[in-house]
Specification:
two-stranded antiparallel ribbon
Length: 66
């Protein structure tokens, strides 16, 4: 099995249609990374101004070419 295939497998097996609910003490922070100046960095390491710029980013979907 390749490494990429292993990453796509679910960490928790539940029956279809079953919702998993976690208490706050069971959760962990999700670290968000973004590409800056050609390399990847965690957003948490940005200064307050760069974090603000990151949150103001506008996501768009490009229309398909005809």
């Amino acid at each position: 099995m390749s490494h990429a295939t292993a990453e796509m497998q679910p960490a928790l097996s539940t029956p279809a249609g079953t919702e998993v609910t976690l208490r706050d003490d069971e959760r962990q922070r999700c670290e968000v990374w973004t590409r800056v100046m050609g390399y990847h960095r965690p957003v948490a390491s940005f200064n307050i101004g760069k974090q603000g710029e990151f949150h103001e980013r506008v996501h768009f979907v490009e229309a398909p070419a005809h």
